[in-house]
Amino acid sequence: MFSGIIASVGRITELAPRNDGTPTVRLTIDAGKLGLDDVTLGDSIACSGVCLTVVEKKGNSFCVDVSPETLSCTVGLDAPAALNLEKALRLADRLGGHLVSGHVDGVGEVLRFDPVGKGENCNRLLEIRAPQALAKYIARKGSITIDGVSLTTNSVNGATFSINLIPHTLSATTLNRLQPGSRVNLEIDLIARYVERMLNPDSSEVS
Fold first, then answer.
1. 157, burial (CB in 10 Å: exposed 0-12, middle 13-18, buried 19+)
2. What is the residue extent of each domain of the chain?
3. What is the pLDDT of residues 124-147, one digit of tens each?
4. How many Cα atoms occupy the beta-carbon half-sphere of 149 within 13 Å?
5. Which of 2, 3, 59 is nearest to 32 (CA)?
6. Topology agreement, domain 8-87 and domain 106-199
7. What angle do CA 72, 51, 61 make, to 5 degrees?
8. Of all helices (H) and strands (E), which one includes residue 179?
9. Three-state SS for 191?
10. 8-87 under CATH 3.40.190.10, yes or no
11. What is the CATH code of the structural domain delimited by 106-199?
């Protein structure tokens, strides 16, 4: 479980197929400012919203194995790129964002990434179109996770929603790299998921 409060921006430095004949890919990730002293093999780290298991440590880098299924339903894990990193929560940790499972529900498309105000350090209006199946889970002033970042929606119109990004979030995450057409990992609010399931026990689960 995670909170969506990003601890570091890391980077995929290497992608290589495993040598066991499976289509699984092993990623080597530079952890950036994320301390790895308390990370052991088998621990979970959210990589741009995707919960992955540490299988090897190399100095300030760690390795994870990514299955074809994960690659098919997420973005940002198939090439060298910057990643938002967060270690799994301890039970005694402060929950600064919201409860995040690290299980991506769908991939959204950025429609707008416009400055709000003047100057380099102004806010940004981020507008995203989510998959239609996720629209009912996205509520005005509700929580949503974008590339692992816990955020609050400002407005919702069908499957399109907007968010106001403050300068701190832009400087501490990879969201400052977004532009119209960018694709992002989305995770809906965990509570919304369970409420919907209880109200409609015979409905299909979110794909």
1. exposed
2. 8-87, 106-199
3. 999 999 999 999 999 999 999 999
4. 23
5. 59
6. yes
7. 105
8. none
9. helix
10. no
11. 2.40.30.20
